[in-house]
Amino acid sequence: MTVNVVLPLPLDQAYTYRVPEALVGAAQAGARVLVPFRNRRLTGIIVGEGPAAETLDFDVKAVLDVLDDVPVCTEGLLDLTKWIADYYVCPWGEALKAVLPAGTTVETEHRLTRTDAAPDAWADHEVGRTVLEDLAAHGETTLAAVRKRVGPAVPLALIRRMAADDVVAVETTLSDERVAPKTETHLRFAPAFQHKDAPDDLIEQLRGNKQRAVVRALAGFRAEGTPEPRRTDVMERADASYSTVRSLVEKGMLELVEKEVMRSPLDDLPAPDPPPDHDLLPAQQDALDAVTDAVDAHRYGTFLLHGITGSGKTEVYIRALQAVRARGRTGIILVPEIALTPQTVQRFRAHFGDEIAVLHSQMNMGERYDAWRRLRTGEAAIAIGPRSAVLAPLEDLGLIVVDEEHEASYKQFDPAPRYHARDVAVMRAHRADAVCILGSATPSLESTMNARWGKYERLELPERVPDASGKTAALPDVRVLDLALQRKKHQLDGALADPLREAIRTRVDRGEQTILLQNRRGYAPVLECEDCGWAPECQSCSVSLTLHRHDGGEQLRCHYCGYAARVPRQCPECGGRDIHQIGTGTQRVEAELEEVVPDATILRMDRDTTREKHGHHDLLRRFENGADILLGTQMIAKGLDFSRVTLVGVVDADVGLLFPDFRAEERTFQLLTQVAGRAGRTRELAGEVILQTRNPDHMALRYAQEHDYEGFAEEALAERRELGYPPFGHVATVEFRGPDEDRVERLAENWTEQLRQHAGPAGVMGPEPAFIQRVKKQHRYRTLLKVRGGSPGPLQTALRRTRDAHGAPPNGYHVAVDVDTQDVL
DNA sequence: AGCACGCCGACT
DNA sequence: GTCGGCGTGCTC
């Protein structure tokens, strides 16, 4: 018997392996296998039965091992990844890799050790010397680890030659699976001592006090209904050490049992309160009925749930999911970024408890693996998480919810597959005869058009949900502050104009809360020499360094690679001492607020303050407990619901408009509408929103001010239609990356040239240097592809043909194909 | 991807 | 002559 195996490499083909007699039973489609491949060993996935070995004109190698008894990949997921590979023009192996939890692949590994031999011969070999230095600094490591630190250009051949010289030792082994079920040791009486009176007999027979205490403790646990308690619990109760337990085990009286436990990072978060049950609004009920009808009919359908902020979308998701669970089927909830939507996640946990497996971007490998395993074994029936949760290993899927479906974070970029989780969700639901709900207050223009074209069914929630007293909060008043005008009136000194300052002051005095959005972190985004215009740039990226303040000190930091530098006192170009701080980040706003409202409690929430595991959670809890102001980047704009927030301020509404991206105004409109929705959720306290801008007439601001989604969509769609941009066409980009600028450019020219020949009806623009030309010392070029009409087929065909014709780029150079690009930069 | 092979220029 | 750069082709 043979099987076809797909490997997690950018190879567009399956390889056939013979299955030894002993492994035939386990070798099912979807299972991981360890296979020989050239001169290494890799973990691959069986995708199906292969042709008979005799019919093949090459030597068929044998599978070395089957690594799963239950296949990691269900039949449905196998198909889905094939679709992803076809649609997003990526190798099947890369798409398959996305469904495997991290750390579950085994492969050949080269372990390196430095020997005592004097490395004289390698002192002037540059790479060789660097490797030896790295080895000296890190002790024993693997070749992969060395490459990660030193750079990819460390050939195995070089290591072999160094080994021949005896300056290093190489051992080639298989890596361990880096994740495994976590076990705990439990304790029980040995079979001969399990009868009721055994403990008393034992206590009589034993001499040591500690040993008796252990037996007594274990008997106590048994009496409480825990016949196999954790070893550590017994030791603690008996105040005994492990050696006491061990001697009892050696005497054959007790036994140790290894039990699997699940690591769950949410255990240390407080369990949410059970929610009050209340009636749905008519619109919510209608939406729910439409969804449950489809669920009942076991029929595919995608519903675009367009509900204004505060209209109770989550309640509809929850009830729909209850209906699905009542029929014994499973569900997936996608949220844009789980750390940012703790309130949504907690509401699901309150309703579904242990049925939910939360997949969290801040979870470690073991925790993710456990969550994944609970889903795979059916122990959990609902997955909630960010985009990768769309590939959760669930069977008999009934519902996929995509919350805030317009969010750009649903598009994966690096590594491949570059899929859009919303579109994969629709496709997965379709193949599973399941229902998909796309929810948003500001749907993407794509989804709005798909609803108009009848591909999705549109459901509207036009009203906010009333509170317990029956009052409904009105949408907040939105005031646009023209900064140019403010300056003229001498009402602008710093980042916050006087009217916004006054509004904040009033809220603090009244004990109400304020949310302030400034979509840039750090203190000042740019420094500039007043005399010659010099501005500090990152040495690895073509971006200016951002000034950060911390504990009284200052530092320059690159937001792309993390490079940090000291703040120059003097311009290195002209020696000038007048170095100005230009622009405003969250830290600078924070400093200004401390002067404006010195008595207020201010919480700053951005990537710098939420780095720790429960950072978001802690900050939000402190805000809930009554801080005055929550200031932050766009992470504060989503899904937060605090009843005492009566003011939302946007320090600079124009930040997103500066990007040369056809989606810039859509993004800005969405962000402003979302953040405005955080205000006035209290029923008795009216909300106010203040937007500061230098473009008061910009359409995105105008429509956000009026809460006019339809108006915005009309105008934006007309423009997209004219230009043939999505949803009236498709775009794809090809990004070229590598260490040498000229070579990247040549590669890009070459590739694009061939692409033009295969383009057919598609338009090819470029190549040109990327918006940010250099990131982490990699130069970047970019080519844009565009086609009118509903099908991305011509783009995909052109990309596939070009990739096949062009072959692999040179070592160290990358060609990244991205279909349905979100950031066209 | 990662590696071997094989081709060229510049050094002992 | 050979070391090491880089393009090319292959992995069941």
Describe the structure.
By secondary structure, the chain is an alpha/beta fold. It folds into 7 domains: 2-99, 3-Layer(aba) Sandwich (GIY-YIG endonuclease), CATH 3.40.1440.60; 108-174; 182-265; 271-461, P-loop containing nucleotide triphosphate hydrolases (Rossmann fold, 3-Layer(aba) Sandwich); 477-521 and 586-718, Rossmann fold; 526-582, no CATH class; 729-819, Alpha-Beta Plaits, CATH 3.30.70.600. Helix content is 32%, strand content 23%. It has 24 helices and 32 strands. A 7-stranded parallel β-sheet has the order 13-14-12-15-16-11-17, sandwiched between helices. Helix 6 (198-205) packs antiparallel against helix 7 (209-223), helix 10 packs parallel to helix 11 and helix 23 (741-758) crosses helix 24. The longest helix has 18 residues, at 741-758. The mean pLDDT is 88. The structure holds a DNA duplex (12 and 12 nucleotides). It is an enzyme of class 5 (isomerase).
How are the strands of the biggest sheet laid out side by side? 13-14-12-15-16-11-17
CATH topology of the largest domain: Rossmann fold
CATH superfamily of the largest domain: P-loop containing nucleotide triphosphate hydrolases
Main pleated sheet: 7 strands, parallel
Approximate helicity band: 25-40%
**What is the overall number of helices?**
24
Distance between the amino and carboxyl termini: 50 Å
Average pLDDT confidence is 88
Backbone CA Rg: 30 Å
Task: Give the second-level CATH assignment, the architecture of the largest domain.
Answer: 3-Layer(aba) Sandwich
How would you describe the shape? Answer: globular
- Give unreliable regions as ranges: none
Query: How many β-strand runs?
Result: 32
Instruction: Name the structural class.
Output: alpha/beta
The first-level CATH class name of the largest domain: Alpha Beta
| Total separate domains | 7
Q: Strand content of the residues, in percent?
A: 15-25%
